[in-house]
Amino acid sequence: MSPADLADDVLDALVVPSFSRIGPALRRRAFRWEPVDLSGRRIAVTGPTSGLGLAAVHQMAAAGAELVLLARNRAKAEEVAWDLVAAGAAGASVVDLDLASLASAGRAGEELAALDRLDALVHNGGGLHATRQLSADGIELTFATHVVAPFVLTGAALPALERSPAGRVVTVTSGGMYTQALHLDDLQSEQGYRGPVAYGRAKRAQVDLTALWGKRLASRGVLVHAMHPGWADTPGLAEALPRFRRVLQPLLRTPDEGADTITWLCGAPSAELGTGRLWLDRRPRPTVYRPGTRTSSSDANRLWQAVVELSGRPDPLDASS
User: Fold this and answer.
1) What is the pTM of this model?
2) Which residues are catalytic?
3) For the chain, what are the domain ranges?
4) Cα 167-155-211 angle, rounded to 5 deg
5) Contact status, residue 115 vs residue 42, Cβ threshold 8 Å
6) Architecture of the domain defined by 36-311
7) pLDDT tens digits along 36-94
8) Phi and psi at residue 72, in whole multiples of 5°?
9) Which residues pair with 80 in a beta bridge?
10) In what order do the strands lie in the sheet with 91-96?
11) Cβ-Cβ contacts under 8 Å for 5 (sequence gap 6 or more)
């Protein structure tokens, strides 16, 4: 292990300097980050009209990508699409998507599947809710929008991802998942709802499913990764955790710093990435730090089956479906 690698591991274990703006400032120099080239890549992004998603699609446009914006507010997304083309994108289009509706997720996935190819699908949309709410399908809203709808969207879009020579799926998770274990007996947070806890558990589920997707899609040539952006100063953070933002504001990352690894994962050579991993600042990270939060392989498989059942659709990787 090189001195830079060792220092990076220590930085990550300390959390505050790793997740704050200190992390990318040090790692950019230590590991000599190169600009990302996305020329010829077609990338679909959920939640592209604000925060990390907006920062990511602008980075991708500047790198020459063609963007597909999956959004609930079509008018706002179309405004962003115009801006992206002006910023250098090879093209930008809009697909309607409401993550609170599994029917909408399925339709959006089918639109993507009809493309001649899709080089990357980025799951960025979602939110943290102060009170327990239900989606259009009667599923707790945090779990629906962060876990079940992205699962449906990925499954439906797979044909286009498989037609790409370097297809990949990138899920934007959160460092908050490190504080939570998977609770298979309460996936929908019915037992004493707390917004940050439900959010952290959904993010833990995202990471567990990423590892399973990675294993199960490896033979099909589609890479699957999760990343967390550290502590980035976004409108979502200001709305959901205003006290946290006030206390840590001097240390918060910009949206561009938080989004950098999203963009990088969409363009990095497949051989450098492997599959099924969690990333921060262009580096693979452990998925567990706190004792008692590791998910067993049997529980991860049970999670997959539970999400399939909640989706109301056949298992997307079951050949007999």
Assistant:
1) 0.96
2) 199
3) 36-311
4) 70
5) yes
6) 3-Layer(aba) Sandwich (3.40)
7) 999 999 999 999 999 999 999 999 999 999 999 999 999 999 999 999 999 999 999 99
8) -80, -35
9) none
10) 91-96, 66-71, 42-46, 120-123, 168-172, 223-227, 277-280, 283-285
11) none
